Amino acid sequence: MFIAINRITAPAGAAEHLERAFAQAGNLQGMPGFLGFQFLRSTREGDPREYLAITQWETRAAFDAWTKSESFRQAHQGSGGPGAPTARLDTYETVD
């Protein structure tokens, strides 16, 4: 299994928009190899707010295919600019 964890830091002004955007993120369900999704908000309050967007995939190839898809482009359009959240992607594979 391949796990992608996007660590997102959102300034107070962007946190509510970010939460709404991820609450409506249903475009993964039809992607080949997609297994699951979780969106977590840190219990540590303050500015900026920290989040984890965790996706599970059958393989890295399935994840890579999603990142090259039209669904991915649509989900991420307009996500940059001043005051926008910043993100760092970490990836993992399960160890058998």
Describe the structure.
- The chain has 96 residues and is an alpha+beta fold.
- It has a single domain, classed as Alpha-Beta Plaits.
- The protein has three helices and four strands, in the order βαββααβ.
Summarize the structure.
Helix content is 28%, strand content 35%. It is an alpha+beta fold and 96 residues long.
The N- and C-terminal alpha carbons lie at a distance of 10 Å
Helix content, binned percent: 25-40%
DSSP summary, beta strand count = 4
- Anisotropy-based shape: globular
User: Reading side by side through the largest sheet, how are the strands ordered?
Assistant: 2-3-1-4
Average pLDDT level: 87
- Count of DSSP-assigned helices: 3
CATH architecture annotation? 2-Layer Sandwich
CATH-derived topology: Alpha-Beta Plaits
Give, in order, the helices and strands.
Answer: EHEEHHE
When the domains are counted, the total is 1
Task: Show the helix and strand layout.
Elements lengths: L1 E9 L1 H12 L10 E8 L7 E9 L2 H8 L2 H7 L9 E8 L3
Antiparallel strand pairs: 1-3, 1-4, 2-3
Task: From the structure above, extract its key features.
4-stranded antiparallel beta sheet, Alpha-Beta Plaits, 96 residues, alpha+beta
